[in-house]
């Protein structure tokens, strides 16, 4: 008899560094907006909150620890959610900039992109003629000629300084099949130990496409490399592929990630007003499929996290 499926962890990526203010008036920009949307998402059922920071004046991505500090402690005080700080930042940030706040905050979790890659939404600029801020158009168009850098040496540095040095565990972001093999390499090198939390990502130009067959390929490859009992699988579908791929992934025993970082929409042609809109929608879908939603403390136990009281903020 097959064992019962574990509860589903809902992650919420609140603002990211990819979308710009022109693309949605609901994208959280200021520390107050990021805190409010994070707290609402946690109340709606998100066990993990994945956080970036933005310049509160113009919405541009920033690694400034002083900006992070205006909303991260507030979210911790108001929720029990696991706080997951980006180590990716944006394609325009150096490794030192990307790690500045995580090394100060020593969070329970950080994201970790498992390889260097082309990462672009430059085609979105073709649809916009009137930009709110001068930085946005060159930022989006410029992605065509930029690479997100995470070399093997970069990843090793993050694993040692944040992982070993701070007790932080990782959301291993895998945008393609090779990223799973990169993760297996670091396990073989003794730099990564389970339980693993693998965030498989579909639909970003430069990574694997949003075809359902690719989700199956990523899942079965992860099973082969790690053994299903040794990792937690999660699914991120970019843009319009969000809800369909998440539902498919959950039925296959995975966890899910929503949020305005990943998609600005709630349904076709309908912008999401808050991240919590997406959390509530995927929660309803999952519960109608008789799947149970994990609480933050259940997620901590499933992922082997150090606990809310062991962070630096």
User: Oligomeric state of the chains?
Assistant: single chain
Instruction: State the end-to-end distance.
Output: 45 Å
The side-by-side strand order for the widest beta sheet comes to 1-2-5-6-9-10-11-12
Q: What's the helix-strand series?
A: EHEEEHHEHEEHEHEHEHEHEEEHH
Write a brief caption for the model:
The chain has helices at residues 31-44, 65-68, 72-78, 95-105, 136-142, 152-166, 177-188, 212-226, 242-251, 275-288, 296-303, and strands at residues 10-13, 48-51, 53-54, 61-62, 82-85, 109-113, 117-118, 147-148, 169-174, 196-202, 231-237, 255-258, 265-267, 270-271. It has 313 residues and is α/β, with parallel strands linked by helices.
Fold and architecture overview:
It contains eleven helices and 14 strands. It has one domain (10-116, 149-305): Aldolase class I (TIM Barrel). The chain starts with 9 loop residues before the first strand and ends in a 10-residue tail after the last helix. The longest helix has 15 residues, at 152-166. It has helices at 31-44, 65-68, 72-78, 95-105, 136-142, 152-166, 177-188, 212-226, 242-251, 275-288, 296-303, and strands at 10-13, 48-51, 53-54, 61-62, 82-85, 109-113, 117-118, 147-148, 169-174, 196-202, 231-237, 255-258, 265-267, 270-271. By secondary structure, it is an alpha/beta fold. Helix 1 (31-44) runs parallel beside helix 3. Keywords: Metal-binding, Transferase, Zinc. Its cofactor is Zn(2+). Pfam families: BKACE.
